[in-house]
Amino acid sequence: MFLTLTLLRKGIPGKQWIGKYRRPRQITWQMKRNTLKQLEREAENEYWISRPYMTQEQEHGHAAERRAQNWLKIKEASFANFPEHKRITDHLSHLRITKNWSS
What we know:
Blueprint: H1 2-9, H2 29-50, H3 56-59, H4 64-80, H5 88-92
């Protein structure tokens, strides 16, 4: 296809690197090397992913205690900023200052 276009039209229409009838890039040895390195890296990652660190039994509930401690820390930190309780007598204590029962 590219040979026919090149022979009949004497060139690639428009920009040569983009579009439907673009010129294909030459594959260099660096491209091959980088692709090979990437495939090797993926193969190593798949190898390590296929071997789990913990079994299913070990994994079930292994972080429950740590998560409970973290939740208690968060809860205590939120209560530390909470103001103390105020009773209704604290709010209304100013109303009976001048009233005397004995006179």
